Sequence to fold (122 residues):
Amino acid sequence: MLTADDVLNVKFQATKFREGYDQDEVDDFLDLVVAALRAREGGPATPRPLTAQDVAGQRFQATKLREGYDQAEVDAFLDRVVEALGGAPSVGRQPGRAAYADAPDASAITEGRRGWFGRRRR
Fold:
């Protein structure tokens, strides 16, 4: 079973000369995942509980000329999060699906946040 501490300790390989996911967006979203898992572990409830569908539908901006997180690693980890939140494996993310202007996402949840992950990396 995936725990909040597992999420706090995850590290993704950085990309430099190939497309990756925006690190700030991934870090901010993982802060929401930590809060959701802490609530399931008996911690404080979150105002808007994160669902398996939220995780499966989350998309991140792709990086091209700057460092990002390896897309396959992030996608594989988020598949584990989907399962931990009660989603079926078939509901999981499709590897390599970066966010584009017309793609639906849950970025409104993370916009403007700089949580634990963002502070840790700086």
